[in-house]
Amino acid sequence: MAQPNIRRLRIAVSGLGRMGARHANHFLHRTPKAELVAAFTPEERELAWARENLEPWGVKIYTDYDEMLKHEGLEAVCVATVTTVHAEQTIKAIEAGKHVLCEKPLSTKLDVVQQVLAAAKRQPHLKVMCGFSRRFDASYLSAYALTASGSIGRPTILRSQTCDKYDPSGFFVAYSEFSGGIFVDCNIHDIDLALWYFSADPTSTNKKKELPKVKSVVAVGVTALEPDLAKHGDVDNGVGVVEFYDGQIAYFYSSRMNPPGQHDSTEIIGTKGKLSVNANPTTGLLESHLSTGIHRDIPQTYYDRFEHAFVEEARQFTDAVLDDKAVPIDLESSMEAVRIGVALQESLRSGKKLWFDREGKRVDEDGQARARL
Amino acid sequence: MAQPNIRRLRIAVSGLGRMGARHANHFLHRTPKAELVAAFTPEERELAWARENLEPWGVKIYTDYDEMLKHEGLEAVCVATVTTVHAEQTIKAIEAGKHVLCEKPLSTKLDVVQQVLAAAKRQPHLKVMCGFSRRFDASYLSAYALTASGSIGRPTILRSQTCDKYDPSGFFVAYSEFSGGIFVDCNIHDIDLALWYFSADPTSTNKKKELPKVKSVVAVGVTALEPDLAKHGDVDNGVGVVEFYDGQIAYFYSSRMNPPGQHDSTEIIGTKGKLSVNANPTTGLLESHLSTGIHRDIPQTYYDRFEHAFVEEARQFTDAVLDDKAVPIDLESSMEAVRIGVALQESLRSGKKLWFDREGKRVDEDGQARARL
Amino acid sequence: MAQPNIRRLRIAVSGLGRMGARHANHFLHRTPKAELVAAFTPEERELAWARENLEPWGVKIYTDYDEMLKHEGLEAVCVATVTTVHAEQTIKAIEAGKHVLCEKPLSTKLDVVQQVLAAAKRQPHLKVMCGFSRRFDASYLSAYALTASGSIGRPTILRSQTCDKYDPSGFFVAYSEFSGGIFVDCNIHDIDLALWYFSADPTSTNKKKELPKVKSVVAVGVTALEPDLAKHGDVDNGVGVVEFYDGQIAYFYSSRMNPPGQHDSTEIIGTKGKLSVNANPTTGLLESHLSTGIHRDIPQTYYDRFEHAFVEEARQFTDAVLDDKAVPIDLESSMEAVRIGVALQESLRSGKKLWFDREGKRVDEDGQARARL
Amino acid sequence: MAQPNIRRLRIAVSGLGRMGARHANHFLHRTPKAELVAAFTPEERELAWARENLEPWGVKIYTDYDEMLKHEGLEAVCVATVTTVHAEQTIKAIEAGKHVLCEKPLSTKLDVVQQVLAAAKRQPHLKVMCGFSRRFDASYLSAYALTASGSIGRPTILRSQTCDKYDPSGFFVAYSEFSGGIFVDCNIHDIDLALWYFSADPTSTNKKKELPKVKSVVAVGVTALEPDLAKHGDVDNGVGVVEFYDGQIAYFYSSRMNPPGQHDSTEIIGTKGKLSVNANPTTGLLESHLSTGIHRDIPQTYYDRFEHAFVEEARQFTDAVLDDKAVPIDLESSMEAVRIGVALQESLRSGKKLWFDREGKRVDEDGQARARL
């Protein structure tokens, strides 16, 4: 085939683990306007995969991240390594003048996220986005359009859950040391959705779509199947409630033990209606009518559920860079999601309800009480 | 027709308002083993209804509750007046030696409920039950049987909501002065379900089906449509979380503004499975496929949704009395539901998380912290 | 209780088998305006049931149908015996001056049905109705209201099925000798629905709600599980198509082998929309989320699915008699349903497509061809 | 990017109308192992589209089909022109030594389809497949796997429908002159599914997965919205029944007037269970709870519903060629689908039921009757 006479985004993927390999495939085969030119991994097993699956397509493989950043013509990086190096790699890429799509979360630590933001602000011409995949799912996008258009009045209450199929390997127990805990690892998606839908309030006179301001957070949890999680201050089932100033509430549930598979669902409840995403989960359109009743399956993993959203994320990021327009998720919002997730996890651990003033500063309950006078 | 040669329970209904009239009909026409012999109401409009609809069937109408209690042969009373006199009438009936089925709640005040329990304990041969109708719904009953049989392992998390269709008349605003607030008026059903399902834990070594013990409660809420509710410390949307000792959590949502109608749903989440009641609400089995999409209706009112449960409640109460067996809902549990509802409402008003020790005594956060050491 | 001072319909039930006992209960306990005064059965087992369940309520038991008809004050009879004596008992009751609610079908033989109609016409003051229970189901009633109000334009195509859970006892094999075959026994309900919905055509200029006129019928079938059905010219799975004059088509499926239970569903397809009844069957509002997927049950029997419709049928029949108004289902329509069912069964047996002229007379294909010129 | 060092199938697309443009995109951007090297269209508007959307990617555009076949290195052709030239182009491509994926149907005329098969047989090393997209849909594939594995016993009855959203432009009226009629244009998909699922019979001793043999077909229809269809012997709503030898029946419905959108559904009914595909249609996982009830959308077009199936079809065809394995749909089956569709359309027009012997020859009813003796 002749070389396409098309302006395509030259992108690299960093990290070729489970999600990294998928991102590589999405940019290589499912994002027509992107060209996967390089990939980085230091892992031998991932390298072997890359040699078989990427190299033949002309993708250059690197075992040194800094070297990869110097790849000729490289314009953008998709950071999909382990969470602990997300921030460092993102900052390095920004400093090398690359656009960045980083897997969520930027970091499980708020101060580290702030460093990423600071780096991004120093290079305002670069597109830097944290990939909250759920925002690119067709059903969530439709719900956003309906919310923004006023179909449900003022979005007031949001309920959202992230429930994974139980993984008996114990992976998530060990991982909880680095994951930031269930609210930062799982419910961060739900928190992000709350920020997204609440800031779409069509009744607001504020046209800037400002983020809602957290007033209080509180969380509880249990270790129903994996008591060892307690070592890291974590649980396998968590319930959290976030109260925002100006009359909006989001409440969340996350679980590591949903038997049939992945069940993530969300309700956006407004003064005139409710939008319900995935109340009635299913893999597809098939039901079996057997002597034991009617049966259906649900997606087994997060990727099974959101594969098309990940592809759409890659496309929208690519378009934003090529067309020099705002990325669909701004970094402030992603930082706020981490801040809320970290606060929920702290509330879980301490048993305390945490309070914030309108500027986002922690206040004690009495300060809060005074503020209300 | 010859007089039936059947032992039937001679019952009276007190209060013939919206629910009272329905109870009267259930005992008169839909509970074969009961005989509605009397009814009481002081309200002129209700009296007119009774003269037309009850008297011709041989039901004696009273305008004085105490007189009604003296009705010859009367064995039981269904108390369905306004909440504020539930307790007083129940106690009087008990003292007059009558079995009592009382509409929920016994009272919105915990000390008053305790008086009812004390009265009932003094007459242990009488059946006294608070009517939590949802427990008699076929789907909830099936969920209970599956929970008790171990299908979902240990019931660990319960999510439950009571969402009413918005009533623009403002009735519930005025009513909030007496209702005890949204957690006592609406979520009391959900609280009762939590007590019911959690005490069915098949993995418990405790065979007494003890009630789970509350450790903490916390609640928040907003007045999205009816700011006047704030006068009574109430809201039109509330979210509450109840943490129990020994690793169980229930979380609740209630709303007065659900546009399509009544949507009460519950999830009982266990270590091996989840039972979902009414995730996918519908009035019946009809869907309309029109140019605007696919449409279905949901029940408009609580009674539309639970009519058959109310009838079943009447039948099971009648059977319990006639067969001298335990009523399906014990009073201790109903009292506990009020205690939790009142605590949630207090948490909503104060903004504070409330703590309890295993004996049910309020402790402060530090006491709690010490208790955890 | 004092004897009610209420005008109630004094009715008897003939036959106390499975459905007869249910009808007896419906009139005794669930139809306030009816008074079950008598019941007839010659069967010893049914008699024993009646002595235990009916006699104590003051119901007089007869073992002679003619004697029962003479019961003092008797006004109406519900005929629920085996199909083979439906017609004879109905005619006798009419001739004795009683109103009659007869279980479907009046007979499996068209000439016998005609005799019933002739008898009824001789006593035009009596209410005589064949009980097609599905017409009294809430979802079907809503669909009717929507059809008649024009929501779906002109009802044009109707798809309807009656699928029973497989009964390994072989009962229905033996019964096929008398049942008239699967189209007369099962699909007769679906045929009745076609007549009902098509005659509700809101676009018709004919205000008499005339029945649609059959143009052709054709049917095929298989014996998938019970080859012995072939002895009686019957099958365990049948598909039939009925073409009406003026552009309406109904097509049917019936089965004796639906593993999860009873699945009867119907689509009324109009020029502007479709009404779908029970496309998504379920027993209630409960779903189980287990490691094997999501599961729900469906009703096990026809009665499980249509219990409330049977009760409503009893009430509407009672009201029609007491208020002297037309019964909800006219006999002409019920006769037409038998005619179509019998024709489908004949088509199944002969393999031939059968043709009718607008007056309902059989014509051969060539006559049909000529008629179309 | 370096030229991939990967063996990819060099394919061309013929016809760039609605479906052709989609096929071009699928091979260009969504089938990694294929390389779209050429495209043909004589239409000015389609050429303009191709210059903008294909040429920049290195795809050579032809306005002469024969020239395109000579494109250097071309290995395969996807024929997606108007139905009337499907066969001719397919034959030409075969004769030029190209593998062919042809849009359904090969032709609306059986003798023409036979010519295609003859051409294909002369070049047995070439892969020639007619694209019945529905076979590549994930839900239909799961249903196939369950059928073949014995989950539902012997597949005995199949119900399937193809219902399009009403297109008020009248396009399909004009198109009916060439479409072969509703059974050949729409229900051909459903017929193909019947052949597929029935030949998967796991109880069959025949391991060759032979196609089921048609015994009789019969069809009726109406012109509810578009009377002009009658000019071409066509209808806008059709019902057809196909009886196979050895106890299998398929029945079909097709409509051009489904108001909410595209609703294609299928039930495969076996002796031990039923598989239901799309009984409960929906676009995604979103439902709106508004004051008018609960609402959801369904796909608007066939492509909206089956987009991913088309992509999967392109991938599987590509893999079959590259790996030199059998294509997933064999031509005999596709020819049989046309034969049945044409017979149904003839039955619709003549009003007659048509009979076939086991060899597929038409017999008259009496011949049939004799055959049964």
Q: What is the CATH architecture descriptor of the largest domain in chain A?
A: 2-Layer Sandwich
Name the structural class of chain A: alpha/beta
- Given as residue ranges, the uncertain stretches of chain A (5+ residues, pLDDT < 50) are none
What would CATH call the class of the largest domain in chain A?
Alpha Beta
> How many structural domains in the coordinates of chain A?
2
Q: What is the helix/strand order of chain A? A: EHEHEHEHEHEHEHHHEEEEEEEHHEEH
Strand percentage of chain A: 15-25%
Mean pLDDT of chain A: 95
Assembly type of the shown chains? homotetramer
What name goes with the CATH superfamily of the largest domain in chain A? Dihydrodipicolinate Reductase, domain 2
Portion of residues in helices of chain A?
A: 25-40%
Largest sheet of chain A: 8 strands, mixed
CATH topology of the largest domain in chain A: Dihydrodipicolinate Reductase, domain 2
Q: Within the largest sheet of chain A, what's the order of strands?
A: 12-11-7-10-9-8-15-16
Largest interface: A-D, 43 and 43 residues
How would you sum up the global shape of chain A? globular
First and last CA, distance of chain A:
72 Å
Number of helical regions of chain A: 12
Rg for CA atoms of chain A: 21 Å
